[in-house]
């Protein structure tokens, strides 16, 4: 435990989840306690916090996709502790961890508030990424899909092996077809979440989106997409989604655009905390 007034940087543990969830809820973010637990299970040595007087004051998480790619997320600081440099401390701890893992590429999705911190430690802008939202409406009928995903196709499009993550998300909700691609969904604090969705064509993405809306369309829904995928934007507009947030996808150490083989096949990301 930290001494009075002295911050302690340590691993984020499962026992810290209620406090971490309090930070994300206060920020208006969509993650649930199960989302926090999933991050810790995926990378138990890569999730960190700053503790002050026995309280979790700031967090960050890391997910490694082999040594090809790592994703940093959940960079949060309690309002009363802002301005003390905790985000920079945690970013440096995360980067040290990833250096020990010899990960070749490190990326994150930055809010406007966080982007200036990340630039100071060596991240550069790559491309915009947007959250789109849809209010509850009639849920359309949809065709039946088998659950699951195509790991080989995902690795080809995403550019790294994120099979461990996808196996966990597929248990919550997934739809796949050999000629279609796949999509997943999960509950959120504020809205049901569509993603990831990796589809072989816009028509395939439409079928997968209809599957998602048949399950969640009567309630509020979120969809995070790369605006350079113009077909994804067109589908979002057609189905009544509207942009509500714009973040900046950033990469560490060099200027680069998204490096997946073809962003036109990425119709929804897995989440700002996953890429």
CATH hierarchy, class of the largest domain: Alpha Beta
CATH topology of the largest domain: Aminopeptidase
Detail the poorly predicted runs: none
CA-based shape: globular
Q: Which assembly state applies to the chains in this document?
A: single chain
Total number of domains: 2
Q: Report on the biggest sheet.
A: 12 strands, mixed
Structural class: alpha+beta
Percent helix range: 25-40%
The whole-angstrom Rg is 18 Å
In the CATH hierarchy, what is the architecture of the largest domain at level 2?
A: 3-Layer(aba) Sandwich
The percentage of residues in β strands lies in 25-35%
Number of strands: 12
User: What is the N-to-C succession of helices and strands?
Assistant: EHHEEEHEHEHHEEEHEHEE
Give average pLDDT, whole number. Answer: 94
Helix tally equals 8
Instruction: Give the CA-CA distance, first to last residue.
Output: 33 Å
